[in-house]
Design a protein that fits this description.
CATH topology: CBS-domain
Shape: elongated
Helix content: 40-55%
Order of helices and strands: HEHEEHHHHEEH
Distance between the termini: 27 Å
Length: 143
């Protein structure tokens, strides 16, 4: 299965945030949409980073919580990104996410952000494939 196939199944609208937004605004958006990370884009829509729950926790742990929430997203976001393309296999995404210990993988087409793949998306896709294969085998055996 390709990453793009999972993205087509996703009903979630892509949420992003500006590097100039406050960490507090990012926390509110993460909670509002029940997501764990936000791609950070510049005014032209170019991906410049990602802010995750983990980035926020590190920031809060390093200083006063109120001060951390007032910082700009750009100050604490992850800049060195690992990304993927829709044509990559899900197995590739699983390997990258496991090896790099990341839970969110931005998806780019011609350097433009088109989606974000979460570890939950990967798990659900694998469960769906396994369920379909099991049903097919049961039908085949019971004829």
């Amino acid at each position: 299965m390709k990453i793009g196939e999972i993205q087509k199944l996703s009903s979630n609208e892509l949420q992003t945030i500006s590097a100039d937004a406050t960490v507090h605004a990012a926390v509110r958006k993460l909670c509002e949409f029940n997501i764990g990370a936000l791609p950070v884009c510049d005014d032209d829509g170019e991906l410049v980073g990602i802010i995750s729950e983990r980035d926020i926790l590190r920031c809060v742990a390093a200083e006063d919580a109120q001060a951390a929430l007032q910082q700009n997203v750009g100050a604490i976001m992850t800049r060195n990104l690992t990304v993927s393309e829709p044509d990559n296999d899900v197995e590739y995404a699983m390997q990258v996410m496991t090896n790099k210990r990341i839970r969110h993988l931005p998806i780019l087409v011609e350097d433009k952000l088109v989606g974000i793949l979460s570890i939950g998306d990967v798990v659900k896709a694998n469960l769906d494939v396994t369920d379909t294969e099991n049903r097919f085998l049961r039908d085949y055996v019971t004829g």
